[in-house]
Amino acid sequence: MRFLSRRLVMPNDLNYANSLFGGRVLEWIDEEAAIYAICQLETNCLVTKHIGEINFESAAMQGDVVEFGLETKKVGRTSITITCLVRNKATKKTFV
Predict the structure, then answer these.
(1) Which family is it part of (predicted)?
(2) Does residue 86 register a pLDDT over 90?
(3) Which of 25, 37, 70, 88 minimizes the number of CB atoms within 10 Å of its CB?
């Protein structure tokens, strides 16, 4: 798996518990996967059809740098299946 992108967890990314809001992570995953698929397929004519299993394993806090690892699992005639792992850049601890 290649880790291609990073984001800094900012105050506006936090939930009421002062950890990274799950919805924000899903937004980032969707965007990162779209960019990855665009680069793999060399077209920007894509939509997200399905987001599968999501496991929140630990919390990211303000100031953490998270990185996104993406990998192609399958390419079909009209689809691409991608796996994404989100982890702490410094500790390598998996968030999602």
Answers:
(1) Belongs to the acyl coenzyme A hydrolase family.
(2) yes
(3) 88
